[in-house]
Amino acid sequence: MTDDWRERLRGSGYRLTPQRELILSAVEELGHATPDEVLAKVREQSSAVNVSTVYRTLEVLEELGLVRHAHLSDRAPTYHSVTDHEHFHLVCRNCRRITSVDPGVITPLSDRLRDEHAFVVDVGHLTVFGQCTDCERPAHADHPPGTPPGTHAHPEEPHTHA
């Protein structure tokens, strides 16, 4: 985390508070996190921060371009630092695996949307839902015990970058 964010905060009329510093540090450390996950991380260092402070601070940090959010499921938005490389997300509706993908993958689509519809894609907020190839595979006879037919044992995998 550089001092640049402190200058941006002050330059926009916001005070630099310990709570804001803790919240931004938590987002950067967690990678992708909901406000509740950020709160839990911050509370490891300070019990004085509440959930409304986290939400308000995340809004300010996003307004200043220091964090971005994406909707990766039907739960609360997930925030990440802009110091991460720009990416969009693929979310498997079955196993909930999240994969970060380089925006260059959709350049042909982005270009076409711009040219044909005068529309510029905000890749940082883009989430594509579908089914991963592991979940798409048909069930086999050697199905793990305790797994209903038509499904498979597929543990939720950590967030990966493609």
UniProtKB/TrEMBL annotation:
Cofactor(s) annotated in UniProt: Zn(2+)
CDD domains according to UniProt: Fur_like
GO BP field: negative regulation of DNA-templated transcription; regulation of secondary metabolite biosynthetic process
Single GO MF annotation: transcription cis-regulatory region binding
Chain segments carrying region Disordered: 139-162
Residues annotated as binding Zn(2+): 92, 95, 132, 135
PANTHER family named among the record's database cross-references: FERRIC UPTAKE REGULATION PROTEIN, ZINC UPTAKE REGULATION PROTEIN
Family: Belongs to the Fur family.
Protein name (Swiss-Prot/TrEMBL): Transcriptional repressor
Annotated organism of origin: Nocardioides luti
Lineage: Bacteria, Bacillati, Actinomycetota, Actinomycetes, Propionibacteriales
